[in-house]
Amino acid sequence: MEVEIEERWKPLLQEEFDKPYFKSLVAFVKKEYANHECFPPGNQIFNAFNHCTPDNLKVVIIGQDPYHGFGQANGMCFSVNDGVPHPPSLVNIFKEISNDLGKSYPKSGNLMPWADQGVLLLNATLTVRAGQAGSHQNQGWEQFTDAVITKINKTKTGIVFLLWGGYAKKKTKLIDSSNHYVLTSGHPSPLSANRGYWFGNKHFSQANKILVKQNKLPVKWL
């Protein structure tokens, strides 16, 4: 089965594409996009993979669901298109980076530059129906993205996983922490951040220190 995804991911993921659950998932997604407005645009569903290849992968950030507002989602977790107002979680991410690294708050919420530097911005569910958060959950996406994490865990070394909030932290069971680096904190959403579970985690400077220690280029977060 042919999936439109960056060629270098196919040797890792083709086994998943050929499984019955994934074929059912594709049929579901095609039907949803044909009959409802869904996000992100069809050609951006695998954007996270198309801008971060297995060769340059060094950091994984795990989100849950794409944004379900018009024009927001672009296939990378927490990221929005240029010119779109920053959602609350993204505002708090940028505030933490600014405080952590002493950088000024950015204008664009498009995180594609992170992906191009080797940050996989992976939502657990890659599609959503407009205005209906979680509407494409439990259709097979979670099985696929768990398989992605498992493949990365088995085939790479020294990857930095940034797990924010309870949902992302559950993925620790898929990661061998003796072979990779796992940083956890509260979620950047206002509910969690305002309770003191987000600000001050210094994940961005910590991640860069880990990368430099491995003779990898640090990420230019802003």
From TrEMBL:
Localization (cell): Cytoplasm
UniProt domain Uracil-DNA glycosylase-like: residue ranges: 50-211
Gene3D superfamilies found in the cross-reference section: Uracil-DNA glycosylase-like domain (3.40.470.10)
Domain of life assignment: Bacteria
Active site: D65 (proton acceptor)
Chief location bin: cytoplasm
Catalytic activity, reaction form: Hydrolyzes single-stranded DNA or mismatched double-stranded DNA and polynucleotides, releasing free uracil
Example of a GO MF term: uracil DNA N-glycosylase activity
Biological function: Excises uracil residues from the DNA which can arise as a result of misincorporation of dUMP residues by DNA polymerase or due to deamination of cytosine.
Alphabetical list of HAMAP family matching this protein: UDG
Protein's name according to its UniProt entry: Uracil-DNA glycosylase
Name of the encoding gene: ung
